[in-house]
Specification:
By secondary structure, the protein is an alpha+beta fold. It is 36% helix and 16% strand. The chain is built from 6 helices and 11 strands. The relative contact order is 0.14.
Length: 222
């Protein structure tokens, strides 16, 4: 209920109180402990109860509005928005069958890009759900790890939406991309959705023993 509507209800209650000249406060209903029963509430009790509930609702609505306005300030500065693991994974799965093109770019506003490379599929899927990630696999992992979001590969294999990586050398924030760098999205059951390479394109694959690094994406809920 909006603040304007709550205020209108409050005014109507005051008008009823005035019309019927209800004293404030009137005697309350009393409990008859011997008979284990309670006498019926007076008209004033009902109005007072409505007024108290209304005042509480007004305070809750006002506090909720203020809280919502300040919530965005607590989000990590490197990322925006939020998404669920399911929506992230489903965005990537929707691109199964697409071509692999090294260096391909895909706008987040385009729901059906023609091609991806491995890191662009991850970046595009995240951006479609309101979360920004770096462009390359090396920088995706280095940035997430620097923020404390790295995780064991075995855990990532059981975590839908976790990222799995393989590198020829450990990447660093702002450093050069390793000679070999690859990233995939875990489906949580030992498989991945990924843009695997020219011979495979985008598809679902067995993770097997192909990955040596893993990280969680901030903003992903269950």
């Amino acid at each position: 209920m909006g603040l304007e509507m709550l205020a209108d209800v409050q005014a109507r209650i005051a008008a009823i109180q005035t019309k019927f000249q209800v004293a404030t406060p009137l005697p309350r209903a009393t409990t008859n402990t011997s008979a284990n029963s309670m006498s019926a509430p007076t008209f004033a009790d009902v109005l007072d109860s409505m007024q108290g509930g209304l005042n509480g609702a007004l305070a809750t609505a006002a506090n909720g509005t203020a809280g919502a306005a300040g919530a965005s300030a607590t989000l990590p500065t490197a990322f925006t928005g939020s998404m669920t693991a399911s929506s992230f994974v489903q965005s990537a799965l929707s691109q199964a069958g697409k071509r692999y093109v090294l260096g391909a770019t895909a706008s987040a506003s385009d729901p059906n890009p023609p091609a991806f490379d491995c890191s662009e599929l991850v970046q595009w899927s995240a951006k479609r759900n309101g979360v920004d990630l770096p462009r390359t696999a090396g920088q995706q992992y280095a940035t997430l790890a620097a923020q404390g979001n790295s995780m064991p590969v075995e855990q990532a294999l059981r975590t839908p939406g976790a990222l799995l990586f393989s590198f020829s050398s450990p990447p660093t924030v702002g450093g050069a991309e390793p000679a070999h760098a690859h990233v995939a999205i875990s489906l949580g059951d030992g498989r991945t959705i990924e843009a695997r390479g020219h011979a495979y394109g985008v598809g679902v694959f067995d993770a097997a023993n192909r990955f040596t690094y893993a990280a969680a994406v901030p903003g992903i809920g269950t």
